[in-house]
Amino acid sequence: MTGKTKPRSRRGLLTLLLGILLAAGTIVAVAGSLHRAPASASAPEAGGSAAQDSAAGKGQQPGEAPAAAGEEYRAIWITYLEYQQMDLSSEAAFRSQIATAFDQIKALGVRTVIAHVRPFGDALYDSDYFPWSHLITGTQGADPGYDPLAVMIEEAHSRALRLEALVNPYRIRGSAAMPKTLAEENPASAFAADPARADWVVEQGEGLYYNPAIPEVRALIVNGVREICENYQVDGIQFDDYFYPEGADDSFDQAAYDRLASGESRADWRRENVNALVRDTYAAIKEVNPEITFGISPQGNNDNNYNIQYSDVALWMSQQGYVDYVMPQIYWGFDYRTAGGQEQFAFENCLAGWLALPRLPEVKLYVGLGAYRIGVGDGGSNPQDEWFCGENLARQVTALREAGADGYGLYSYRWLFGTDQPQAAPETAALTAVNG
After folding, report:
1. Angle 172-222-238 (CA atoms, 0-180°, nearest 5)?
2. Which residues contact 119 (CB under 8 A, 6 or more apart)?
3. Lesser CB count within 10 Å: N end or C end of the chain?
């Protein structure tokens, strides 16, 4: 079996310990020392430490190295939506399908896979903090008998592909059925059942989220990231663009604001809560292994990041101790116009705005490209012909290179390889050519 060698009973002990510590208002690092579904197209988007683990898929195989750090960053997302198209019922079935996917990715000229490992406060890896993901067995908390992340690392590194772990830091439930039932050992279940900690999780519509204001919640998230870095030979950690839940009124964090704020405005207080998580995550990663990269993929509309999700991306780019890269999701075409005729989100205009932001020399700017737009369009008031030309993503790659961006990511795998969309094949052929 691919996975950790430690006994499963340790999870129960640590879960009990976690509950005790949380009740006392403190989380310690017991372990030792996360893509949004596309928003409406009509508007801009507001290895184990033991040596034997390496041979069991925990890390890079001997003589097989990921792509050199100095090369152009070329990535593709494999998200929970891709897993829903796969058979995860056994290690053999999953390994076969992920190997095929990685062969296709390698042939495309892409060098990094960004794989979802914590999409809903649950884990596609063996965790002492979060329950097994329902995406594997259909039931959150059910042990699948193998370790999907360990399999992906082994298969990626055997092909000289980097593997970054994608984490949604705050999201617990995306809808009433995703997941339908939380595991008993899910920390969110314990928080919600305890009146003293009831505001540690907050509801928004059908969604359920960890409250970004709570220091103990931030520690839980950071410890979860630290655990991945300590136990798996990942090449990077990426946070998705979910931070504060969109659409929530002030009531969801009123109690926390009254208790924890120090006179600052609610907006500034919320932004600092997110800043603290990002700083602490970066520090934890670098403490474990300075070579592991930490990046964030925010919305392409940076006003939404700042004012709706309370994510100060410009700060993260310009000050040390936050990120190694940002990858804004610029999912619009060259010709994109809003219904009101505005063109600031057209691909080259939006890219220019991001490139103009002050940025530390060591912080890279990558660009998220919307593969899900091909053969469909971006929903703008403009003609949609470019998304039917069979080479629009390749054109965008050429444009971002000429503009001086450091690389790109494709959202996502299924729109290029898991679809019957007739434009997918010519788009992949054109991308392969520009990557040659």
Report:
1. 75
2. 34, 79, 80, 133, 135, 166, 168, 171, 174
3. C
pLDDT of residue 259: 95
Instruction: Write out the H or E segment, with its range, that includes residue 163.
Output: strand 162-167
Residues 6+ positions from 145 with CB-CB distance below 8 Å = 1, 90, 91
d(CA 57, CA 233): 9
Can you tell me whether residue 342 is helix, strand or coil? coil
Q: How far apart are CA 107 and CA 415, in angstroms?
A: 16
Provide the strand spans (E) within 290-349.
293-296, 325-326
Rounded to whole angstroms, how far apart are CA atoms 115 and 155?
12
All domains of the chain in start order, with CATH: 9-39+47-329 (3.20.20)
Model pLDDT, residue 249? 82
Q: DSSP per residue over 178-241, as a string?
A: BTSS--TT-HHHHHHH-GGGGGGEEEETTEEEE-TT-HHHHHHHHHHHHHHHHHS--SEEEE-S
Six token digits for residue 242: 């979910």
What's the longest Cα–Cα distance across the chain? 60
User: Is there a contact between 162 and 67 (Cβ–Cβ < 8 Å)?
Assistant: yes
Structure tokens at 123: 């884990």
pTM: 0.87
Secondary structure (DSSP) of 90-120: SHHHHHHHHHHHHHHHHHHT--EEEEEEESS
- 393 within 8 A of 435, measured Cβ to Cβ: no
Cβ count near 19 (within 10 Å)? 15
> What integer pLDDT is reported at residue 69 of this predicted model?
56
Q: What pLDDT is recorded for position 230? A: 98
pLDDT at position 27 is 34
Please say whether the beta carbons of 156 and 163 come within 8 A: yes
Q: What is the pLDDT of residue 200?
A: 96
Degrees to nearest 5, angle at CA 348 with 345 and 352:
90
What confidence score (pLDDT) does residue 66 get?
A: 59
Q: Write down the pLDDT at residue 5.
A: 32
How far apart CA 358 and CA 335 sit, in angstroms, is: 26
- Give the residue ranges of the chain where pLDDT is below 50: 1-57, 59-64
pLDDT of residue 248: 78
